[in-house]
TrEMBL record:
Record Gene3D superfamilies: lambda repressor-like DNA-binding domains
Region (Disordered): 1-33
All residue ranges annotated as the HTH cro/C1-type domain in the record: 44-98
GO MF, one annotated term: DNA binding
Record-given protein name: Transcriptional regulator, contains XRE-family HTH domain
Organismal lineage: Bacteria, Bacillati, Actinomycetota, Actinomycetes, Glycomycetales
UniProt-listed InterPro entries: Cro/C1-type_HTH, Lambda_DNA-bd_dom_sf
Bias kind Basic and acidic residues: ranges: 16-25
């Protein structure tokens, strides 16, 4: 029995993404997209380093071990929302602020996250 390739175009026009007018063949493959935990870890590390903190400083305020925070930053752990919220709070961010920063990083692929510590808001600036 012949196998049909997945998501093959059924008409002569190029296939497009459901929410985009970009042709599907220009889309990155599923394997090319970073995992959420990897993007989260990169963002957490950049935010922590931007504050000039050691793993133990941030982890202590979050109530987790430095080893666990290190594993989060390296994308080894797939942390619960409670753990993510604890680390966000230790970085003076709300969970929403951190989620937006990570989503922006994923969306653009070239992002530098910085934080305004006094106002508890995150800014993601394209490079």
């Amino acid at each position: 029995m012949a196998e049909t390739p997945p998501l093959a175009a059924t008409d002569a026009s190029p296939a497009t993404h459901e929410h985009s007018d970009r042709p599907a063949d220009d889309a990155p493959g599923l394997g090319a997209e970073p995992l959420w935990r990897d993007a989260l870890g990169d963002c957490l590390r950049d935010l922590r380093r931007g504050r000039g903190e050691k793993l133990s400083d941030t982890a202590g305020r979050a109530g987790i071990s430095p080893q666990y925070l290190s594993e989060m930053e390296r994308g080894v752990k797939d942390p619960s929302s409670e753990m993510i919220a604890a680390v966000a709070g230790a970085l003076d961010l709300s969970l929403v602020d951190l989620t937006v920063a990570v989503a922006e990083r994923l969306r653009t692929g070239e992002i530098t996250a910085s934080v305004s510590y006094g106002s508890r808001s995150a800014y993601a600036l394209a490079a």
